[in-house]
Please model this.
Amino acid sequence: MIITRTPFRMSFVGGGTDMEDFFRENGGAVISSTFDKYCYVTVRHLPPFFEYKTHLTYSKMEYVNAYDEIKHPAIRNAMKMLDMHAIRLTYESDLPAKSGLGTSSSFAVGMLNAFYALKGKYADKKKLADEAIFLERKLCKESGGWQDQIAAAYGGFNRINFREKGYEVRPIIISPERKQILNRNLLMFFTGFVRYSADVQRANSEMGAVKRQCLRETLVLVDDAEQILVNEAADMDEFGRLLDYTWQLKRKTGKAVSTTEIDELYEKGKRAGALGGKLLGAGGGGFLLFYVRPERQDAVKDALRNLLYVPFQFENSGTCVIHYTPEHYEESVAEEIK
Model:
């Protein structure tokens, strides 16, 4: 039996510049961090005593005998890609899916990590990120960028640079004390609205002149954000104000980025004392993140009391195998799933 634990991510600055059709031409960069909310994937070989060959449990249950019977596209394509047979897979999560935290990509990374471990093979973080990107963007044909898979695989507080020939992951060098100040000044709330990120990305996919210009400006602001974080003399509150500015830019990049309800919630947070914030993920729903000085946090929580407040801490591990019990498995014992 294998159990993997894979964190979710929050992206601060640069979202949208990780889209392949943008960064291949313009370059891209994102500052993001993983945090201590996770998805868990359990995988084991299914004993040959059942009428079905594979059992899958996520928000639904599937009992199947062939690849093409699998309804979940990521599981179906991942099993084909890695030649997986006769398994029982279970997915659990600390937070809801379709909420802007890269949950589907964290699942993809964690699943691939579990599949390799079940085969007795080691896959490093880059291999897991690359294959999760290939799985979601090419095999499943889902719209979206590359940052989620990379963040989930590597973990930590990073700047991810995108270039024509790929990407690089560069840790943000920030003192533990300064990092903790940032963590304390961030409040996260669940809006209650959920949506498929790929659907939002498709709705916003047209790369018009306004969107391209907003993304180019956002890319420049990644440097400013990094300097605020790493410069011990800089006022950390400027990071909150920059979040507000970049959120206003992002709202211009597509009609599905925000809604009237989300705009009203954001303004409530601002009026109560937040210096800035953003909707996490592609847009349309999920979690609102605010930067709030400690003395104004009770007021912001009260203003948004109808939303679920979710405390969190940054984490550094990325995807990992937290339980590993090797199994003896003979393909001849169980008829292959095709």
